């Protein structure tokens, strides 16, 4: 059974992934706060994206630009004129909708064939009693909707103490433009040769008419964008370089999401129709994900041609060109833009990782995160919290491993329950310290210095010398090869799921 959005929202709040913003004041559905585990997961997504697409590539560099930019940036980019959505309002309840989304909503209907009884009818369907189709407001079922009006999605603000037109600027609606505006700075300072890319991850703001579906569409969100500049006169494998690189980036981005756990059957590519293309795009392909709300855009990969550099050159009067040594001429590079949303990626990873299963007659909720994405890598759990030696050893292990990855210590329940808690937040490995590890001084028995590692997915357990923990986890977090650990240390046992301390 695919996970529902309600299940994810509830798990996120209960286990500290995502909270509704300003909840104590009634909250707002259009912005969300990332809790202690959410922030770790989000940082892991950004870190892996940066590592795989920037740090490990010789043709990529990074940027961290400010959110507030010169207002002319947004005139040149076309956002002031064209970054709009059509909106309609209900005359009765004042609810506001995106005109192109109205028919995709369930609609409220007071049916004349059933003495005006109220029904909520699925999106796009007719009333089963009277056959009517929606004409009024889908929310209240009573009011007429206004004709569509264009609504600019940029948040306006004022720079400085005077709130007049001269001080007007915007919160950036995408991170992309800073990379175009800084094209020459980056090119000159880093002495780059085409093709090369500039990457940036950061906050963007859009005054969406109908935000919603949890963190899928919000007014404040984070993007991870790359502007990859290519020489339009070059060819690769007999094809224009921009077109070849566009396909290459589509394949690389798909591979990236698969690598970190999104299942093949939940991913698809969607080519934009000509009429749907943004004003700057020569071609755009979306990577769609089967979210709990249905197939929707996870990221877009556009071929923006030379539109942006030419626009900024025209409006700023500064040359934004590249000197092509081979042809001895200045050219304006074309740009391929892989643009992903951090929050949407997080939602997709969360939805894909969520699984419910039955283990020995009990329900187990487990987030099967890729180990590198998991918010907590290792949980250290003392089997008996009243045994000082066990607790001290467990704290010592936590402290030593914490220098390398996120590790938690927990002794607030019996072991079976502690395992379930860690499964529910996707912790790939638990370490338990028991009497066998430390020995029993009263009986004059010394410990074997071994601790138990428990694997989240198989629930198998293996005893490993304490001193081997760091290299073992380094290996596991890199390649997740639990089989290699089992082969090396042997003696595998199954997680009984219940505690010797009497877990109910
Ligand atoms: N520079 C191109 C650009 O911004 P976009 O398709 O508008 O393209 C890129 O945005 C990605 O940013 C989307 O695929 C989505 O993942 C994310 N995104 C856009 N608007 C969003 C919103 N309101 N809430 C959450 N994520 C959003």
Oligomerization state: single chain
Largest sheet descriptor:
7 strands, mixed
The number of E-state strands comes to 30
Cα separation of the termini: 28 Å
Average pLDDT over all residues? 94
Shape assignment:
globular
| Beta-strand proportion | 25-35%
Global structural class: alpha+beta
Number of helices: 14
Measured as a percent range, the helix fraction is 25-40%
What order do the strands of the largest sheet run in, or round the barrel if closed? Answer: 3-11-12-20-17-16-15
Ligands, ions, cofactors: glycyl-adenosine-5'-phosphate
- Unreliable stretches covering 5 or more consecutive residues: 497-504
Specify Rg, calculated over alpha carbons.
27 Å
Describe the structure.
The chain is an alpha+beta fold. The protein has 14 helices and 30 strands. The strands form ten sheets. A seven-stranded mixed beta sheet has the order 3-11-12-20-17-16-15. A hairpin with a 2-residue loop joins strand 13 (235-236) and strand 14 (239-240). It is globular, with a radius of gyration of 27 Å. The two termini are 28 Å apart. Glycyl-adenosine-5'-phosphate (GAP) binds next to strand 12, strand 17, strand 20 and helix 9.
């Amino acid at each position: 059974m695919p996970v529902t959005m309600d299940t994810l929202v509830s798990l996120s709040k209960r286990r500290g992934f995502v909270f509704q913003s300003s909840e104590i004041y009634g909250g707002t559905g259009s912005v969300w706060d990332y809790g202690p585990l959410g922030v770790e997961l989000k940082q892991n997504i950004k870190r892996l994206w940066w590592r795989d697409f920037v740090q490990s590539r010789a043709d990529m560099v990074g940027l961290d630009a400010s959110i507030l930019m010169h207002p002319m940036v947004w005139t040149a980019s076309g956002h002031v004129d064209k970054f709009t959505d059509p909106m309609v309002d209900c005359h009765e309840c004042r609810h506001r909708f995106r005109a192109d989304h109205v028919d995709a909503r369930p609609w409220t209907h007071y049916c004349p064939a059933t003495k005006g009884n109220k029904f909520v009818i699925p999106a796009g369907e007719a009333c089963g009693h009277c056959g009517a189709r929606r004409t009024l407001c889908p929310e209240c079922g009573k009011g007429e909707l206004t004709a569509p009006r264009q609504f600019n999605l940029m948040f306006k603000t004022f720079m400085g103490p005077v709130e007049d037109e001269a001080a007007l600027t915007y919160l950036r609606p995408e991170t992309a433009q800073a990379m175009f505006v800084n094209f020459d700075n980056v090119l000159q300072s880093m002495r780059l040769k085409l093709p090369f890319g500039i990457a940036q991850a950061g906050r963007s703001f859009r005054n969406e008419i109908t935000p919603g579906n949890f963190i899928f569409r919000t007014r404040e969100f984070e993007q991870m964008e790359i502007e990859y500049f290519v020489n339009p006169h070059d060819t690769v494998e007999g094809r224009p370089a921009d077109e070849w690189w566009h396909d290459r980036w589509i394949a690389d981005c798909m591979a990236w999401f698969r690598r970190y756990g999104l299942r093949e059957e939940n991913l698809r590519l969607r080519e934009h129709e000509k009429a749907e293309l943004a004003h700057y795009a020569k071609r755009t392909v979306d990577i769609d994900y089967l979210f709990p709300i249905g197939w929707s855009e996870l990221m877009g990969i556009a071929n923006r041609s030379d539109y942006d550099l030419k626009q900024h050159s025209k409006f700023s009067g500064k040359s934004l060109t590249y000197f092509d040594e081979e042809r001895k001429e200045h050219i304006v590079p074309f740009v391929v833009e892989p643009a992903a949303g951090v929050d949407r990626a997080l939602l997709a990873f969360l939805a894909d990782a969520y699984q419910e299963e039955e283990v020995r007659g009990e329900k187990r909720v487990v987030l099967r995160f890729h180990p590198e994405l998991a918010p907590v890598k290792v949980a250290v759990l003392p089997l008996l919290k009243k045994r000082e030696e066990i607790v001290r050893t467990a704290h010592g292990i936590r402290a030593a491993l914490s220098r390398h990855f996120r590790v938690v210590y927990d002794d607030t329940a019996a072991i079976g329950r502690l395992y379930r808690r860690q499964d529910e937040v996707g912790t790939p490995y638990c370490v338990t310290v028991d009497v066998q590890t430390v020995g029993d001084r009263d009986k004059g028995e010394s410990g074997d210095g071994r601790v138990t590692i428990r694997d989240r997915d198989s629930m198998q357990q293996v005893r490993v010398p304490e001193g081997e923990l760091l290299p073992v986890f380094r290996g596991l977090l890199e390649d997740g090869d639990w089989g290699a650990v089992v082969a090396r240390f042997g003696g595998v046992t199954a997680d009984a799921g219940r505690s010797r301390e009497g877990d109910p």
